[in-house]
Write a structure and sequence with these properties.
This protein is globular. With 175 residues, the protein is α/β, with parallel strands linked by helices. It is 39% helix and 15% strand. The longest helix has 16 residues. It has a five-stranded parallel sheet with strand order 2-1-3-4-5, sandwiched between helices. The protein is built from eight helices and five strands.
């Protein structure tokens, strides 16, 4: 029964999300998966509207996203929907019970090239390497870090945690 200007609504929501998270801005999506897709698209295209119009054709753009092998899951399609190639690094042995180590920071660094658009990181209590190591490495190379934090609420402290640990883009689920 009321008219709402969606741009104004999103702008106000952005302010509220920013205050709650410590991020520069926020955006309401239909879910965490959509947030990951939009975050990836932003990393690939930046503010270039002509690149945005071409998606999912990423030829000639930074179109690789590094992801620790142990962070892969069914929702990584949210990254791939943009047209990028996921670059898996490290073993998954520890997670499947056949080894003694997980991904190490040096493996992520070794995968960074001039085609790297972002580093994807799934936030779980057991995620390796530690997020602060990954964000520090990413900052050295000028590469943004996208966090899949879909299942990380509660606790409410996680709203600020990932940004304070250096993440560039974080996607939470409303659930």
């Amino acid at each position: 029964r009321a008219f709402v200007d969606m741009a104004e609504l999103q702008a106000r929501a952005s302010t509220i999300i920013s205050e709650a998270t410590g991020a520069e801005a926020g955006y309401v999506t239909s879910g965490a998966a959509a947030g990951l897709t939009l975050a990836t698209a932003a990393c690939v295209t930046g503010l270039d509207i002509s690149k945005m119009e071409r998606l999912p054709d990423t030829s000639g753009m930074k179109n690789e996203v590094i992801i620790p092998r142990s962070h892969r899951n069914a929702y990584d399609h949210s990254f791939r929907a943009v047209g990028i190639k996921l670059i898996e690094v490290g073993p998954n042995d520890l997670r499947v019970g056949s080894g003694v180590r997980d991904v190490e920071t040096w493996e992520i660094e070794a995968a960074i090239t001039d085609r790297t658009a972002a580093i994807a990181y799934v936030a779980k209590p057991w995620s390796e390497p530690p997020l602060e190591e990954v964000t520090a490495l990413a900052k050295q190379h000028g590469v943004p870090v996208i966090i899949d934090a879909a299942a990380e609420l509660p606790p409410a402290g996680n709203l600020k945690r990932f940004i304070s640990e250096g993440a560039d883009l974080v996607s939470f689920s409303g659930g």
